[in-house]
Design brief:
With 241 residues, the chain is of the alpha+beta class. It folds into two domains: 194 residues; 42 residues. Helices cover 16% and strands 44% of the residues. It contains one helix and 16 strands. Strands 1, 2, 3, 4, 5, 6, 7, 8, 9, 10, 11, 12, 15 and 16 form a 14-stranded mixed sheet that branches. Strands 13-14 form a two-stranded antiparallel sheet.
Length: 241
C-alpha cells in the first residue's frame, strides 16, 4: 500500500465549484417519517424549509424514521437541521432522540486509503437517552481537503471536528419544537494529501528485519539445541552434576 504525505495550505481547493455536497444519514427513534424534514439556511440568505430532493425516509420499528439526504451547501457559514417544521401537523411527542450514522462533506474517500483524518467523526453518536423536549446542537468546523493518489487522480473530501450540546428552548412563553441542528463554518486551512510509492530502501529494510529476525530465532534455537545435547552427552558419560 502506498504511503501518503500531508501538508497544510491556505487556499480554496475546489475553485471550480461554489457549492459543497453534503450527505446525512440519521435515525430518529421517536418521530415518524410523516413529520420529519430537512431545513437549510446560510449567511447568503438561503432558507429552505422541508427540502425534498434526493431524500429518503424509511419507517422504523417503534415509530421512528431512518432519514437520508444528499444536498448542496454554499461556501459560507450556515446550518441544516432535521426537524418537524415542514410537517402539516406537529407530533404529539416531538422527541428528537436519535443516532447519527454518517454526516459527510464533499466526496467520499475511497476505502483502503492510508489517510489519518476526521472524515466522519459523528458516526455512531447515540442520543437515544436525551431529554424528550431537547434540541440538539452540533457545531462543526469543516476543513477542506485534497487527496491525490499515486496515479494523479484527485478527490476533494472534507474533514470536520464537532462539539455538541442539548438544550430545551423556549419560544413565546412555551417550549419550542425541538430539532437537530448542524451548524457549520469553513476553515481557511486546506489539508493536502499525496500518495507516494514506498522507496526501495524501505523494502530492503523490511527484508533485512525479517531475515535478521529469522537468524536471531534460528540462533536461539541452535543454542538451546546445543545446550540440550551437551547435557545429554554429559549424562551419558556420568559427568552430570
Amino acid at each position: 500500500m502506498p504511503d501518503s504525505t500531508s501538508e497544510l495550505t491556505v487556499e480554496d481547493p475546489v475553485t471550480h465549484s461554489e457549492k459543497i455536497p453534503v450527505y446525512i444519514n440519521i435515525t430518529l427513534l421517536k418521530v415518524g417519517c410523516d413529520y420529519v424534514g430537512l431545513d437549510i439556511q446560510d449567511d447568503m440568505g438561503r432558507h429552505e424549509v422541508g427540502f425534498q430532493d434526493n431524500t429518503v425516509k424509511v419507517p422504523q420499528e417503534g415509530g421512528g424514521c431512518r432519514f437520508e439526504s444528499h444536498f448542496l451547501i454554499n461556501k459560507v457559514p450556515g446550518n441544516f437541521h432535521v426537524s418537524t417544521h415542514s410537517a402539516r401537523k406537529q407530533p404529539e411527542e416531538p422527541n428528537m432522540s436519535h443516532i447519527v450514522h454518517k454526516v459527510r462533506f464533499g466526496m467520499e474517500l475511497e476505502e483502503g486509503k492510508n489517510v489519518k483524518g476526521s472524515f466522519n467523526p459523528l458516526q455512531n453518536v447515540d442520543k437515544s437517552n436525551s431529554d424528550a423536549m431537547a434540541s440538539h446542537d452540533y457545531i462543526l468546523r469543516v476543513v477542506p481537503s485534497v487527496y491525490e493518489d499515486i496515479k494523479g487522480n484527485i478527490q476533494f473530501p472534507f474533514q470536520y471536528t464537532f462539539s455538541s450540546r442539548e438544550v430545551v428552548q423556549f419560544h413565546h412563553g412555551g417550549v419550542a419544537m425541538p430539532a437537530i441542528w448542524f451548524r457549520y463554518e469553513l476553515s481557511p486551512i486546506t489539508v493536502r494529501y499525496k500518495e507516494k510509492r514506498k522507496p526501495f530502501y524501505t523494502f530492503l529494510t523490511t527484508v533485512c528485519a525479517i531475515v535478521g529476525g529469522t537468524f536471531t530465532v534460528a540462533g536461539i534455537l541452535d543454542s538451546l539445541l546445543f545446550s540440550a545435547t551437551e547435557i545429554f552427552r554429559k549424562a551419558e558419560l556420568g559427568k552430570l552434576g
